[in-house]
Amino acid sequence: MDNQSKPHLAVVEDEPVLREYIVRFFKGHGYSCWGADSAEGFYREVAVRPTDIVLLDIGLPGEDGLNVARHLSAAGRYGIIIVSARGQVDDRLTGLDVGADAYLVKPVDLRELAATVDNLWRRLAKDRDPHGESPFVAAPASSAPQWRLNRTDWSLISPGDKILPLTASEYRFVWRLMEAAGEPVSKEHLMIALGGTPDSYDYHRIESLVSRLRKKALATLDSELPIKAIQSFGFVFSDVCHIV
Hints:
By secondary structure, the protein is of the alpha/beta class.
């Protein structure tokens, strides 16, 4: 498998020595690979880093890996390989039930892990279109105009093809809503995507960001953003959208 055809990897592992060992191994074998020590750190980085397959520990601080796997599976744009010390049959079945494509038990031989990554990538690649685009950023099934979030230049494109440039915070916020694929996202998860922590973040900043973004969209796109507030919970991107 040549370097250009290899997937972009993310390693979510709270044990720093193991995390760096895995990242160095894959980088040494020509993969693009980065690491995060928690779900919160992963959510912040995956919004701005190319990622195709996530190597995911379960026993993370804060939000656990099973919940992360649920979010990733719902988004439908990532391959998921759980790498965990929990090796009982029930643990493995639970991991697969929440959306993991494979489940490996620690300690794992990194050659086996690499083979699992390559096999998963080949299987997922069967869903690519004839032009070889990533299966995780596939063209929408409907031909109707849709909202698009451009990962290259951090812009939101309306169904009418008007472009709204986004700041870093606005991009992370919109990405987190779109990544949820129409499901509501809590203020806590949005706060994490914006780089905050549950015990220190001012939730009014999210409401202020949304207010500014709506005004900016009206001025630039001549249309309202389909971002709806869910009372006492968070926000949802209520229209059809995809990330390009």
